Structure formats: C-alpha cells, structure tokens
Amino acid sequence: MESSVLTDYAIKYVVHILDNSAIPYCLVGESVLELYGLQRKLGIFTGFAIPTKWMEHARYALQQAGHFSCRGPCDARTGYKPTFKEDVPPIAPAWHFHMPPPPLAGGEHGSCGPSTFLWGYVVNFYNHSDALWFFPEPPRGDPTTAPRPPLGDNVPPEGLGVLSDYYMLSDDLRLSPHRRHAPERHPIKISTPHRYLETIICQMCVHRQKREVGLAETCAAIFHRLTLPRRLNPQLQVVLRERELSEPFRGFVENHFKDPEDPTKSDSGWEERVLTFLYTKPEIHMLLS
C-alpha cells in the first residue's frame, strides 16, 4: 500500500461536502503537518476526525455524492503502516471510501478481494475522541458563509471564538506564508499546533505506560516532527510557540530539549507528571486502565 496522504484536490472535495452538510470535522494526520510547514516523510495516517454522533451523517453525505463506505476485504481497512518502522502497527480508520483520481492524474494501487486496481485516494474517517483527546467538538458549517451564533454554541470557524484555542483555518496568518492557503481558497479546519502537541504527548505517555510500543513510536514520530523547528534552531518558532503550551506539557517539552548530561533532565519524571495530570480527567480513566 502506498501513502494515504491526501492531496489538496481530495481534501478540498471532501471538505466542501462536510461543510455544506454542516458536519463538524477536523483534518488530522500528516496532511496537517504539511500545513504547519513541516515536511511530510513519515507515511503515517491522514484523514478527518469526526465526532461519533456525526459519523453516520458524514457517511450519508458522502453516499449522496456517490461515495460509499468500503466494506470488502480491502487492505485499507486495517490502516496504513508508517514508513519509518515496519513493525509499527497501522492506525485503522472508523471507515473509509475510495475516491477516483481527477482526470489525467495518477492514483494509488490497492487490492480489494482478488482484484488489483487503481484508485485515486483513500479517504479515512477517524472517531474524534480517538484522534483528538480533550478537544471540544469541531465547529460546523461553511467558514466562508456561516453566520456567527452566540459564543459557546459550536461557533462557526468564521469567528472561531472560544474554540480558537483548539482549531484554526488553513488560511490562518499564524501559518507559514509558504504553506497557508490563499484567502480565495476554501479554508480547511485543522487543530492548533500547541493543542495538537499536547494531545500527542498524552497519547505517547499512555501508550508507553501500557507497553503499546508501536503506537507510542508513532506518537513519538509526530512529536519529533512537531518540535523539529526548535531542534534545528532554538530561536525558530514558526508555528508552535512554547508559551502557548499549558503545564505539564511545556515542562515536558523543555525537559526533552535539555542536554543529556544535565542533572535536572528526567524523562520518566515528566512522563509521570503527564500521567498524573491525566488521572484528573474522568474521561481518560478507561484509556489508562
């Protein structure tokens, strides 16, 4: 299976359907790292995170557009194995469909049953609660036309309001001018990098505690990619600003960059602090058990 990273064409197509159907979503995975201005080389999952109660609405909206959930013995159902380590388990989506390529464009080769065929893109949908821990429900509606309801009532992205700490649009001025989308393009809803990094740190610590080595390594790969600007140049804060991180996550990142000979460096100590923080969240107890 080749990379499932979606192209701008596929993302734009699906986003229009979701926005026009007022279905809350957030783009997740490697395509988001590219919008952050980080090079894509991991070969990890990509797709759309949708709240569970909206998942069937999304499936219906795509069916109305002629795209049906793949239910056959397709190799995409088990997810995609990262390219950086062969024994890392794939991250399986809740469901997916195969989208044909645009005219004169190449596609990905896959297999469904005994046949091998050419498809354009594999569009994956993930349960929001699995991909973005602690995130509030994403905003709904077309960000170019949606009116602005009272704050706190699932504010549309035009005026993200109280949700702006968790979500941003692909034309946000905080993004690199080389990566952010032009104002005339239909904007895509993505997570803010500091909240996404906090979620990745949580997942990495939980998977390590549960000895789920493969999943922990996938989270670690995303963690290193998100903090890459800091590693290359401590003064280079392109998108991720450490001051926006809350505790204990800011301390976790600062500890990560300490010199290995620094006597105050304590990786296990900061992982314990993150886990202690998570134990204060009732919704995470099931994941920790």
Description of the molecule:
The chain contains ten helices and eight strands. α8 (249-256) packs antiparallel against α9 (267-278). The two termini are 34 Å apart. With 289 residues, it is an alpha+beta fold. The strands form three sheets. A four-stranded mixed beta sheet has the order 1-2-6-3. It is globular. Mean pLDDT is 77; it is low at 104-119 and 147-159.
H/E series, N to C?
Answer: HEHEHEEEEHEEHHHHHH
Please bin the fraction of helical residues: 25-40%
Helix count? 10
Q: What proportion of the residues form beta strands (DSSP E)? A: 5-15%
Strand neighbour order, sheet with most strands: 1-2-6-3
The beta-strand count equals 8
Give a brief rundown of this model.
This protein is 33% helix and 13% strand. The chain has ten helices and eight strands. The protein has helices at 8-20, 30-35, 52-64, 128-131, 193-209, 213-226, 228-232, 249-256, 267-278, 285-288, and strands at 26-29, 46-50, 95-99, 108-112, 115-119, 121-127, 167-169, 189-191.
Topology:
Blueprint: H1 8-20, E1 26-29, H2 30-35, E2 46-50, H3 52-64, E3 95-99, E4 108-112, E5 115-119, E6 121-127, H4 128-131, E7 167-169, E8 189-191, H5 193-209, H6 213-226, H7 228-232, H8 249-256, H9 267-278, H10 285-288
Parallel strand pairs: 2-6
Antiparallel strand pairs: 1-2, 3-6, 4-5, 7-8
Helix pairs in contact: 5-6, 5-9, 8-9
Key phrases:
two-stranded antiparallel ribbon, single chain, 13% strand, 10 helices, 289 residues, four-stranded mixed beta sheet, alpha+beta, 2 domains
